[in-house]
Amino acid sequence: MNDRTLLVTGATGVLGREVLRRAHETGCTVRALTRRTAPPDVPGAAGTDWRTGDLTANTGLDAALIGVDTVIHCASDPRRPQHDLPALRHLLDAARRAGVRHVVNISIVGVDRVPMRYYRIKLAGEQLLAASGLGWTNLRATQFPQLLDGMLTALARLPVVPMLAGTPVQPVHPAEVADRLVTLALGQPAGHAPDFGGPEIHPATELAASWLRATHRPRRVLPLHLPGRLGTALRHGHLTTPTHPHGTTTWTDYLTTRPT
């Protein structure tokens, strides 16, 4: 039995669930933070020590962090990104009080090059972590296929599916990112870790077309040219990391196994 205690935030999300599964394989004591009064039913997370706390409201954090060696921070809300920075600040403050040795943060490839509000907030979070005085590791990953799947499901309600022209994307499976996060958490603080991307880069329009075929939706993809700095950044491939294709699960693999 490993005598370390790992705390996972965002443990009920797409990535957090995978982190819990992988963390349990290490022999560490695995703790997770939840806002719910009753422990969530997360498949594969049996044996998790669930602690009640709220990062945004800054409640329950001191109790949750007692005895914790390493935090893996997966909590984020793209729908309410204004909460992310205060939540991280509260977490880091509590981690300092608790004597946490190492905070591992998940971020996104391109946060420093793509002018989107959510990305600017993620970049500010990286900077906050680096200035925290704690041991820290930051991992940037490319987009999860589940995110792309959800976006395409919404767009497929239209007569045609609009998709950005000339924009490369590099889907990576969250289980593989989770494996890297846990490996980093068990090591020494590394600062900015190498990016983590999927095995293949696809034009967004081709990715959408393959999704439509796999889901048997009789729709046509409508390529759109996005103007301005954002469009330029996306067409330049700033969402991808061609030199770090560390994942092995392809977009086709995902489409083959996705729930129908």
UniProtKB/TrEMBL annotation:
InterPro entries: HCF244-like (IPR044256), NAD(P)-bd_dom (IPR016040), NAD(P)-bd_dom_sf (IPR036291). Residues 10-144 form the NAD(P)-binding domain. GO terms for biological process: photosynthesis. One of its GO terms (cellular component) is photosystem II. Keywords: Photosynthesis, Photosystem II. The keyword Protease does not apply. Signal peptide: none annotated. Pfam families: NAD_binding_10 (PF13460). This is NAD(P)-binding domain-containing protein. It comes from Kitasatospora cheerisanensis KCTC 2395.
